[in-house]
Amino acid sequence: MNRTTRLMILAAAMLGVTACDNAKQAEQAQETQGEHAQQAAQDQAELTAEQRQEQAKLVQEQQKDQRDIAKDEAKDNNDLARGKTDMNEVREEHAENAKDRQELTKEQLEDRADLAKKQAEERADLNKDQVEQRTKDGKKVNEAAAKADGERADLVKDSREELRDLDHRVSELQNKAQAATVEEKNKVATALTGWTSKREAAERDIEALNSVTATNLNRAKDAVKKQLSALDKTLDKAENAL
C-alpha cells in the first residue's frame, strides 16, 4: 500500500464517521419534528376540550341564574293567586324581576364575549408558538439534511478517488507486467483473480452511499471501506509478485 493510498483511506474513514454522524443528526431532527407535530396536535385538542368545558360551565351558570329569576317570578304569581300579596306588590316584583332579567342578560352576553375573546387569544398564542416551533424544526431539519448531504457527497467523492487510484495502480501494474517473465505474469494474474467483479461491486456500493438511509449509512460505509481495503491488499500482493 503506497503512502497516497494510505492517506486516502484514512481521510475516507474520518469523513465517513462525520457523514454518518451528520446523517443521524438529520434523521433525529426529522424525528423531533414529528414528535413536536404530534405534541402540537395534542395541545390543540386539549385546548379545544378545555375551552368547551369552560363554555359549558358558563352556559350552566347562566341557565341557573335564569332559572332562579323564573322561580322568583313563579313564586310571586303563586302568592298573588293565593291572595298572600296584593297586585301592587306583584307589579313591583315583576318590574324588579324584569330589570334583573335585563341586567342578567346583558351581563351574560358580556361574559360570553369575554370568554370568546379570552379563548381566541389562547388559540392565537398557541398557534403562534406552534408556528414558531414548526419554523425552528423545519430550519433544523433542512440544515441537518444539507450538512449530511454535503458530507455524504464528500464521502462518495473520496471513495471514488480512492477507487480511481486503485485503477491507476492496476494500469501501471499491467504495463509493468508486460516486460516480466512468464512466471511473474502468472503470479500477477493469480493475485488479480476476481479483481474485476470485486472492483465493480465496490463501485456499486460507493454509488449506493448516495441513497442509503442514515440508519444503514455506517454499515454501508464500513462495507465500502472493507472492499477498498481488500482491493488494495490484492494489489499489494500482485505488485509484490514483480
Task: Give an overview in words.
There is one protein chain. The protein has 242 residues and is an all-alpha fold. 91% of the residues lie in helices and 0% in strands. It has five helices and no strands. Helix 4 (195-208) runs antiparallel to helix 5. The longest helix has 91 residues, at 87-177. The chain is rod-shaped. It starts with a helix and ends with a helix. Mean pLDDT is 84; it is low at 2-10 and 12-17.
Q: Could you list some keywords that capture this structure?
A:
91% helix, single chain, mainly alpha, 242 residues, disordered N terminus
In short:
The protein is mainly alpha-helical.
Task: Draw up the topology in text.
Layout (H helix, E strand, L loop, with lengths): L2 H79 L5 H91 L4 H10 L3 H14 L5 H27 L2
Helix pairs in contact: 1-2, 1-5, 2-4, 2-5, 3-5, 4-5
Mean pLDDT: 84
The topology string of helices and strands comes to HHHHH
- Overall strand count: 0
Choose one word for the global shape.
rod-shaped
The computed structural class is: mainly alpha
Number of helices: 5
- How much helicity do the residues have? over 70%
Distance N terminus to C terminus? 15 Å
Main beta-sheet strand count, sense and barrel state: none
- What is the radius of gyration computed over CA atoms, rounded to a whole number of angstroms? 41 Å
Percentage of β-strand residues: under 5%
- Uncertain runs are 2-10, 12-17
